[in-house]
Design brief:
Helix content: 25-40%
Structural class: alpha+beta
Number of strands: 8
Strand order of the largest sheet: 3-2-7-6
CATH superfamily: Ribonuclease T2-like
Distance between the termini: 47 Å
CATH topology: Ribonuclease Rh, Chain A
CATH class: Alpha Beta
Shape: globular
Largest sheet: 4 strands, antiparallel
Radius of gyration: 18 Å
Amino acid sequence: MRFVLAALLLLGLALPAAAQGRKAAPGSFDYTLLVLSWSPQYCADRGDRAPAQQCGPDRRFGFVVHGLWPQYQNGGWPENCSTERVSEQMIGRMLDIMPSRQLVIHEWRKHGTCSGQSADDYFGTIRKSFTGIAIPDRYRNPTVPVTVARQQLIEDFLAANPKMPREAIRLKCRKSELEEIAVCMGRDGTTPQACGKLNFSCNSETLRLAAVRGG
């Protein structure tokens, strides 16, 4: 493995996306990526191991926030930029849109510490960013699975968010199951803009959104 990594570096080739995170000074990034997870699919994938906080029978989540990630225009991202912790009070306040205590802690530690903001300001930006995205009605809380063409889903989001550039949206799927939608934002975390180089894609022509739990 060391030989392979050394060879890639000598040849000037890019490392895989998993190796592109690196420490940097807080606030050193080009734009941000708001990542929204389709919670019903997350819960379905985990089956009996699904966490009750997010996936219990009374937890009818649709799109939830995975995170707001500082990014570099040419690929890669800063991570783990400081050891500052997030308070229990802030964790509790975020659970309505990030329904996992461990997720809130992880996202702050890995991504939020690189934002150049305090924890309060970073999570405030996440909430503003999330509430600023209009979720089309058919994808809010479907009680039966939704099957849609990939391009139609994108068009639906663009129609619901007229100021969003077409180049701002990225999808992630596993085969035909939608897992996440990402929206590229400016450094302020709230203004949609064209994405830079990202390892975030979905090649399926048709997508399926699992129904919300309890539907």
